[in-house]
Design a protein that fits this description.
Chain lengths: 243, 243, 243
């Protein structure tokens, strides 16, 4: 059983955050809220997100799991104004999700969770350095990096967070000392990442007031942030540096 | 003889309403105003519109008929700001229409009306049910329907107006009880229509405060509304339902 | 040596004005400011522009010349907000230009000026007629002309400036008497120009409050204007009229 009511923009945040990584996913319906964990088909990027029951205007659930096409769900939500109420109800017998927005009523066919990828085990990493930075600044640096390269090095050096992109001719570097960061745990860190994934993720976290990056040495990058009422965490595998 | 002055947005409304159906048309120049009746090449959708002489700042005419390329006329009007005055004058001998907008002066070649389709006879239908609804609501329902199907069923059942779209997996329904409609004439009605035409029309009537739908059983749909000073009426043939 | 600081929008104006004509250019670094002269590859359009040292917040230079890819420079500037400060510094030994925008730092590879076209000699023309007109009006007339043709005649006749575009069927003319122009030097003038170039230039001068056109008889057109702190002058070769 699942019945809920939530502001459209809150639900939209959750779906958009997942869509940066996958198009279909299992959603775990828990008493404490909705949870989604997924890994992309190339096994390079993972997302783990949850939205608490308290973010809903109405939230009633018998714990369970559904499989859903996120693209169709996003399409349905696109009919709603930002602060319009979205009412969702699981039609268990028919394997459908009913979505009401004003006078509109969608019935979305669900996907058998057994046919979807298993919920990935998200490793608990203890990364040596971390920085917290406004999402808009990070998005700007990523967009600027895309102008010169398709990959980027993130690191920490002497209390300074840096992002370096190196093209054949031009280079871009972004640096921010700890005094300008929202928060920092200094430590040795330097890893290279594909901009393709960072760019897709930055469209989501660019709207977050604070984004925490946890970085290691040639190690995965952990990106975590709150988007209104949703907590999102991405994990991105490093590229091997050849030079 | 035809000389007129009108606010650009009023003329634009008329042309846009016709363009949902045809690209070229005969315009009838009458003392009471301009009139246009046309049917699309597949003979599925008709438009009948008129704009009264009183909507013009200046209106002088000797009754007659001109044939015009609506796309070129719309292009010319696109140079004008919304509340700019558009001055039109028929150059009979040259078979041209002169259009002045500020310091700009277009001369559009006219089309011999004899080479265009005859003005269609628009049937007078006495449809069993009708509903009146804000254009924006109707447009939203049509856009939502397009996400799941390419056709839609419109009908009235027990004082409720409904629109149903049925895809292979997902469905969308829009329902509005008479208490929320601007007006209703209850009656048995249920017909299926192609969303392709409804979608083009909805770009026009989406801006109308009130749109009247007249519906029958497997019968054409009549859509009528005022767009500022122009009165527009569409007639759309039903699709035959196979199920 | 070259070190400077300037508001992003001022630098953007200069680059955009040059980009209407060329993608790569020599920039002359002078004590009085930056200068750029270039001719397009078809030798039809020339640009000559300068931005005075006084338009910069900081300007330090040893006179010299650099070759630069304007597209990459424009890309780098696109990261900056309009009123953000752009800091530029020439790294002579590395043949690079360093550009700082907030926490971002680009290093753009320069082009050996010797491999670029020579700075063209811009002829001093003494054209018989000239008109000065708001850039937005001129841009509107050029956009309207594009709807009917790919070339246009500019001229002056009896104290009236005119622009005529003639398509196969439709025509567009723009006329403005001296009383409505910002300034006029009457004289006999009538030349035809390709709209392709005028259109690209008009995206730039469309934002200028006053654009001066100097016209002759089947002679090049000189277009000059201030864009904030930059002075821009275009020279456009006439098309030969066949009729």
């Amino acid at each position: 059983m699942f019945r809920s009511e939530i502001l459209a923009e809150r639900m939209h945040d959750v779906i958009e955050a997942a869509r940066a990584i996958v198009n279909e996913a299992r959603i775990s319906l828990q008493e404490r809220g909705l949870e989604l964990k997924a890994i992309n088909s190339a096994s390079v990027a993972m997302v783990s997100l949850r939205i608490d029951a308290s973010a809903f205007e109405l939230y009633q659930v018998t714990p369970g799991e559904i499989g859903i096409d996120l693209v169709r769900l996003e399409d349905a939500l696109s009919s709603a104004g930002k602060s319009e109420l979205v009412k969702m109800e699981l039609l268990e017998d028919e394997r459908k999700l009913k979505i009401r927005i004003g006078s509109l009523s969608y019935t979305l066919g669900l996907i058998d969770p057994g046919t979807l990828q298993r919920e990935p085990k998200i490793p608990e990493l203890d990364l040596p350095a971390s920085v917290t930075i406004p999402g808009a600044e990070l998005r700007r640096a990523i967009k600027a990096s895309e102008l010169v390269s398709d990959h980027v090095v993130l690191g920490v050096r002497d209390d300074v967070f840096y992002m370096d992109a190196r093209g054949d001719v031009d280079t871009l570097s972004f640096t921010m000392p700890s005094s300008e960061l929202l928060d920092m745990k200094p430590g040795e860190a330097r890893s290279m990442f594909s901009l393709e994934y960072l760019s897709a993720m930055s469209r989501v976290f660019g709207r977050a007031p604070a984004v925490k990056l946890e970085i290691g040495i040639d190690y995965p990058l952990q990106i975590s942030f709150w988007l209104n009422e949703a907590h999102v965490s991405y994990l991105l595998a490093p590229r091997i540096e050849e030079e």
